[in-house]
Amino acid sequence: AQSVTQLGSHVSVSEGALVLLRCNYSSSVPPYLFWYVQYPNQGLQLLLKYTSAATLVKGINGFEAEFKKSETSFHLTKPSAHMSDAAEYFCAVSLSGNTPLVFGKGTRLSVIA
Amino acid sequence: DTAVSQTPKYLVTQMGNDKSIKCEQNLGHDTMYWYKQDSKKFLKIMFSYNNKELIINETVPNRFSPKSPDKAHLNLHINSLELGDSAVYFCASSQGREGRTDTQYFGPGTRLTVL
Question: How close does chain B come to A112, measured CA to CA in Å?
């Protein structure tokens, strides 16, 4: 069965510091992987997705993620955190068309001035 | 123009009542979803419809019944509400049936509180 593990339910960084949010997946077939962001009191929106093309994926708002098959990871990074990045971040995995998207438990990112 | 809209945004009700949440998307998408997000932010799919056809039905009590009158609408009706139903319910949509790579677009959520 597919699953996603997000290490760290809460990550706190200083404004301007590197953001690193960790995601590891478990899958018996090549996965498709997503990062979604949820701002307070809003729905989720897509940051980026990996669909078996380039392993380094660039998304919106300066975020990027690298698919590493050997490590079964898809960590999300941003070189310099901004106050507006404070939100809940979800990693998700998809295996096939009719299987549901499986979300990790989320990581809350706090940005300190 | 809101892409995926839900009504109501907040719903407070007593145990045992029946309530509905409505969802509409104006993106022309073929597939719609209902998700439940619990108090710990864990997000889990409940149902998925493609062109009014149910394609995913996770282990959800049959007190929950989705209804899709057309491919732009997916409503969620809940009978005999229980305390454990309190959560935020998100509607989402995506382009096609092959959901593996499709981006899902989420509504703003409906916060249901059962007293």
Answer: 22
